[in-house]
Design brief:
141 residues, 2 domains, rod-shaped, transmembrane helix, membrane, DUF1700 domain-containing protein, transmembrane
């Protein structure tokens, strides 16, 4: 797929789904991104392959459009052109935590708590039972 085909596909899927200004903004962004990567020596085909399916990109833009309009209508896009800076980072990664990341953190915390309780209950339970037995017999005197 060429840059033109990529951008045409993206434009056709975004048109009518999001405001025209946002369509232009996204097309300009991806066009500039491709141009900058090609200037660094990466083949155009490789850049487009790294970006992925323009239909999926369009669907993601459309799905997130409502959220971004509610929070910030003047979203500015940026990316790093220095390969050293972007090493280990995926293109388009959000700085906010995703629901699955929060779920994983909660599950890890719960696992740690249950592990601690699993160790402490055999120690604490007999102490509590001995305390109840002592208080029961002290009241009977």
């Amino acid at each position: 797929m060429s840059k033109g085909e990529f951008l045409d596909t993206l434009r056709s899927k975004l048109t009518g789904e999001i405001p025209p200004g946002k369509v232009r903004e996204n097309i300009d962004y991806y066009s500039q991104y491709i141009n900058d990567k090609v200037r660094t020596g990466i083949a155009e085909q490789d850049v487009i392959q790294m970006l992925g399916d323009p239909l999926l990109i369009a669907r993601t833009i459309i799905d997130t459009q409502g959220c971004s309009e509610a929070t910030d209508s003047g979203t500015a896009y940026s990316y790093e052109t220095d390969p050293q800076e972007s090493r280990g980072r995926s293109f388009g990664r959000s700085k906010t935590m995703k629901t699955w990341q929060i779920l994983v953190i909660v599950l890890v915390i719960l696992a740690v708590l249950f592990s601690i309780l699993r160790v402490l209950i055999p120690i604490i339970l007999p102490i509590v039972l001995i305390g109840f037995v002592i208080s029961y017999f002290s009241k009977r005197r």
